[in-house]
Amino acid sequence: MPLVYTFWITLSATLAIAGHYLALDWLHWIFKPATTLLIAVWAWRAQTVERGYQRVILIGLLLSCLGDVFLMLPGDWFLHGLVSFLLAHVGYLFAFRLRAPWVGHLWPFLLYALIAAPIVWILWPYLPSLLRAPVLLYVAALAAMAAQATAVWWRRRDRLTALAAIGGASFVLSDAILAWNRFVDPFEAGRLANLLSYWLAQWLIALSVATSVRSR
Protein backbone atom coordinates (compact mmCIF):
# COMPACT_ATOMS: atom_id res chain seq x y z
CA MET A 1 0.00 0.00 0.00
CA PRO A 2 1.28 3.52 -0.72
CA LEU A 3 0.70 4.57 2.91
CA VAL A 4 3.09 1.91 4.21
CA TYR A 5 5.75 2.89 1.69
CA THR A 6 5.18 6.56 2.48
CA PHE A 7 5.96 5.85 6.14
CA TRP A 8 9.22 4.02 5.39
CA ILE A 9 10.29 6.50 2.73
CA THR A 10 9.60 9.40 5.09
CA LEU A 11 11.53 7.70 7.90
CA SER A 12 14.49 6.97 5.62
CA ALA A 13 14.49 10.53 4.25
CA THR A 14 14.36 11.94 7.79
CA LEU A 15 17.36 9.85 8.83
CA ALA A 16 19.29 10.93 5.71
CA ILE A 17 18.59 14.60 6.40
CA ALA A 18 19.41 14.18 10.09
CA GLY A 19 22.70 12.56 9.14
CA HIS A 20 23.59 15.60 7.05
CA TYR A 21 22.71 18.24 9.63
CA LEU A 22 24.16 16.30 12.58
CA ALA A 23 27.38 15.58 10.65
CA LEU A 24 26.75 11.83 10.96
CA ASP A 25 28.12 10.98 7.55
CA TRP A 26 27.50 7.24 7.85
CA LEU A 27 23.80 7.87 8.51
CA HIS A 28 23.49 10.13 5.49
CA TRP A 29 25.44 7.74 3.24
CA ILE A 30 23.18 4.82 4.15
CA PHE A 31 19.78 6.45 4.05
CA LYS A 32 20.15 8.87 1.15
CA PRO A 33 20.36 6.11 -1.50
CA ALA A 34 18.08 3.90 0.62
CA THR A 35 15.27 6.45 0.31
CA THR A 36 15.45 6.50 -3.49
CA LEU A 37 15.72 2.69 -3.53
CA LEU A 38 12.56 2.39 -1.44
CA ILE A 39 10.76 4.56 -3.99
CA ALA A 40 12.12 2.31 -6.75
CA VAL A 41 10.83 -0.79 -4.91
CA TRP A 42 7.36 0.75 -4.85
CA ALA A 43 7.54 1.45 -8.60
CA TRP A 44 8.65 -2.13 -9.25
CA ARG A 45 5.88 -3.69 -7.12
CA ALA A 46 3.03 -1.39 -8.16
CA GLN A 47 0.15 -2.88 -10.10
CA THR A 48 -0.13 -1.36 -13.55
CA VAL A 49 -1.33 -2.12 -17.05
CA GLU A 50 1.46 0.06 -18.49
CA ARG A 51 4.42 -2.28 -18.13
CA GLY A 52 6.63 -0.36 -20.54
CA TYR A 53 6.03 2.87 -18.64
CA GLN A 54 6.74 1.11 -15.34
CA ARG A 55 10.04 -0.33 -16.59
CA VAL A 56 11.35 2.99 -17.89
CA ILE A 57 10.36 4.85 -14.71
CA LEU A 58 12.14 2.16 -12.68
CA ILE A 59 15.29 2.62 -14.77
CA GLY A 60 15.08 6.37 -14.12
CA LEU A 61 14.81 5.79 -10.38
CA LEU A 62 17.80 3.45 -10.36
CA LEU A 63 19.86 5.96 -12.34
CA SER A 64 18.79 8.60 -9.81
CA CYS A 65 20.00 6.37 -6.99
CA LEU A 66 23.36 6.11 -8.75
CA GLY A 67 23.38 9.90 -8.97
CA ASP A 68 22.63 10.09 -5.24
CA VAL A 69 25.71 8.00 -4.54
CA PHE A 70 27.98 10.06 -6.79
CA LEU A 71 26.86 13.36 -5.24
CA MET A 72 27.61 12.26 -1.70
CA LEU A 73 30.99 10.59 -2.36
CA PRO A 74 34.08 12.33 -0.96
CA GLY A 75 35.85 14.28 -3.66
CA ASP A 76 34.44 15.93 -6.75
CA TRP A 77 32.00 13.49 -8.38
CA PHE A 78 29.52 16.17 -9.36
CA LEU A 79 29.83 15.58 -13.11
CA HIS A 80 29.23 11.85 -12.68
CA GLY A 81 26.12 12.60 -10.64
CA LEU A 82 24.99 15.13 -13.23
CA VAL A 83 25.29 12.56 -16.02
CA SER A 84 23.41 9.95 -13.97
CA PHE A 85 20.51 12.33 -13.39
CA LEU A 86 20.62 13.49 -17.01
CA LEU A 87 20.09 9.89 -18.12
CA ALA A 88 17.32 9.53 -15.51
CA HIS A 89 15.51 12.55 -16.96
CA VAL A 90 15.89 11.18 -20.48
CA GLY A 91 14.32 7.97 -19.20
CA TYR A 92 11.42 9.84 -17.60
CA LEU A 93 10.99 11.87 -20.79
CA PHE A 94 10.62 8.72 -22.87
CA ALA A 95 8.30 7.19 -20.27
CA PHE A 96 5.98 10.20 -20.53
CA ARG A 97 6.16 9.88 -24.31
CA LEU A 98 4.57 6.45 -23.96
CA ARG A 99 1.44 8.14 -22.63
CA ALA A 100 1.08 10.91 -25.20
CA PRO A 101 2.82 12.21 -28.37
CA TRP A 102 5.87 14.44 -28.24
CA VAL A 103 5.00 18.08 -27.64
CA GLY A 104 1.30 17.30 -27.70
CA HIS A 105 0.77 20.82 -26.34
CA LEU A 106 3.25 23.62 -26.88
CA TRP A 107 2.51 25.83 -23.87
CA PRO A 108 4.20 23.61 -21.22
CA PHE A 109 7.44 23.71 -23.21
CA LEU A 110 7.26 27.49 -23.52
CA LEU A 111 6.51 27.76 -19.81
CA TYR A 112 9.48 25.64 -18.75
CA ALA A 113 11.73 27.42 -21.24
CA LEU A 114 10.79 30.67 -19.52
CA ILE A 115 11.63 29.08 -16.15
CA ALA A 116 14.88 27.46 -17.28
CA ALA A 117 16.34 30.46 -19.12
CA PRO A 118 16.73 32.77 -16.08
CA ILE A 119 18.07 29.88 -14.01
CA VAL A 120 20.84 29.28 -16.55
CA TRP A 121 21.45 33.03 -16.88
CA ILE A 122 21.94 33.37 -13.11
CA LEU A 123 24.13 30.27 -12.82
CA TRP A 124 26.31 30.92 -15.86
CA PRO A 125 28.90 33.28 -14.29
CA TYR A 126 29.35 30.93 -11.34
CA LEU A 127 29.83 27.71 -13.31
CA PRO A 128 33.33 26.35 -13.98
CA SER A 129 33.98 26.38 -17.72
CA LEU A 130 34.11 22.59 -17.91
CA LEU A 131 30.62 22.31 -16.39
CA ARG A 132 28.86 24.87 -18.57
CA ALA A 133 28.01 22.58 -21.50
CA PRO A 134 26.94 19.62 -19.30
CA VAL A 135 24.79 21.88 -17.11
CA LEU A 136 23.16 23.46 -20.17
CA LEU A 137 22.35 19.99 -21.56
CA TYR A 138 21.07 18.87 -18.17
CA VAL A 139 18.77 21.87 -17.75
CA ALA A 140 17.37 21.29 -21.25
CA ALA A 141 16.63 17.64 -20.47
CA LEU A 142 15.11 18.51 -17.07
CA ALA A 143 12.87 21.21 -18.54
CA ALA A 144 11.79 18.96 -21.42
CA MET A 145 10.95 16.15 -18.97
CA ALA A 146 8.82 18.41 -16.79
CA ALA A 147 7.17 19.99 -19.84
CA GLN A 148 6.33 16.63 -21.40
CA ALA A 149 4.83 15.46 -18.08
CA THR A 150 2.65 18.57 -18.01
CA ALA A 151 1.65 18.16 -21.66
CA VAL A 152 0.59 14.57 -20.97
CA TRP A 153 -1.51 15.69 -18.02
CA TRP A 154 -3.10 18.47 -20.07
CA ARG A 155 -4.05 15.88 -22.69
CA ARG A 156 -5.37 13.16 -20.37
CA ARG A 157 -6.45 15.08 -17.25
CA ASP A 158 -6.30 12.09 -14.89
CA ARG A 159 -4.77 11.41 -11.48
CA LEU A 160 -1.72 9.49 -12.67
CA THR A 161 -0.61 12.10 -15.17
CA ALA A 162 -1.25 14.86 -12.62
CA LEU A 163 1.10 13.10 -10.19
CA ALA A 164 3.82 12.94 -12.85
CA ALA A 165 3.34 16.59 -13.79
CA ILE A 166 3.64 17.76 -10.18
CA GLY A 167 6.63 15.46 -9.77
CA GLY A 168 8.32 17.05 -12.78
CA ALA A 169 7.72 20.53 -11.37
CA SER A 170 9.10 19.44 -7.99
CA PHE A 171 12.24 18.15 -9.71
CA VAL A 172 12.80 21.53 -11.37
CA LEU A 173 12.40 23.22 -7.98
CA SER A 174 14.75 20.76 -6.30
CA ASP A 175 17.51 21.19 -8.86
CA ALA A 176 17.16 24.97 -8.87
CA ILE A 177 17.69 24.95 -5.09
CA LEU A 178 20.63 22.55 -5.44
CA ALA A 179 22.29 24.72 -8.10
CA TRP A 180 21.80 27.92 -6.11
CA ASN A 181 23.11 26.29 -2.95
CA ARG A 182 26.14 24.78 -4.67
CA PHE A 183 27.22 27.51 -7.07
CA VAL A 184 25.69 30.86 -6.10
CA ASP A 185 24.95 31.46 -2.42
CA PRO A 186 24.69 28.52 0.01
CA PHE A 187 22.08 28.87 2.74
CA GLU A 188 21.45 26.80 5.85
CA ALA A 189 18.07 25.37 4.84
CA GLY A 190 19.13 24.76 1.25
CA ARG A 191 19.98 21.10 1.72
CA LEU A 192 16.70 20.45 3.52
CA ALA A 193 14.64 22.16 0.81
CA ASN A 194 16.57 20.40 -1.93
CA LEU A 195 16.16 16.91 -0.51
CA LEU A 196 12.50 17.29 0.44
CA SER A 197 11.51 18.57 -3.00
CA TYR A 198 13.73 15.92 -4.65
CA TRP A 199 12.18 12.97 -2.87
CA LEU A 200 8.70 14.43 -3.32
CA ALA A 201 9.40 14.56 -7.06
CA GLN A 202 10.62 10.97 -7.19
CA TRP A 203 7.73 9.68 -5.08
CA LEU A 204 5.10 11.41 -7.20
CA ILE A 205 6.66 10.13 -10.42
CA ALA A 206 6.77 6.62 -8.95
CA LEU A 207 3.13 6.87 -7.88
CA SER A 208 2.20 7.76 -11.46
CA VAL A 209 3.01 4.15 -12.38
CA ALA A 210 0.24 2.54 -10.37
CA THR A 211 -3.22 1.86 -11.74
CA SER A 212 -4.17 0.33 -8.39
CA VAL A 213 -3.58 1.33 -4.77
CA ARG A 214 -2.36 -2.19 -4.04
CA SER A 215 1.04 -3.61 -4.83
CA ARG A 216 2.14 -7.07 -5.78
Quick recap:
With 216 residues, this protein is mainly α. Helices cover 80% and strands 0% of the residues.
How does this structure look, described?
This protein has helices at 2-21, 25-45, 51-72, 78-97, 107-123, 129-156, 159-184, 190-207. The chain is globular, with a radius of gyration of 17 Å. The protein has one domain. By secondary structure, it is mainly α. The protein is built from eight helices and no strands. The longest helix is centred in the middle third of the chain and has 28 residues, at 129-156. The mean pLDDT is 93. α2 (25-45) packs parallel to α8 (190-207).
Q: What keyword list fits this structure?
A:
globular; mainly alpha; 80% helix; single chain; 216 residues; transmembrane
Instruction: State the end-to-end distance.
Output: 9 Å
The proportion of residues in beta strands is under 5%
The major sheet is characterized as: none
- What is the helix/strand order? HHHHHHHH
Assign the structural class, choosing from mainly alpha, mainly beta, alpha/beta, alpha+beta, or little secondary structure: mainly alpha
Strand tally is 0
Low-confidence stretches: none
Bin the helical content.
over 70%
Query: What is the overall pLDDT average?
Result: 93
The coarse silhouette is globular
Number of helices: 8
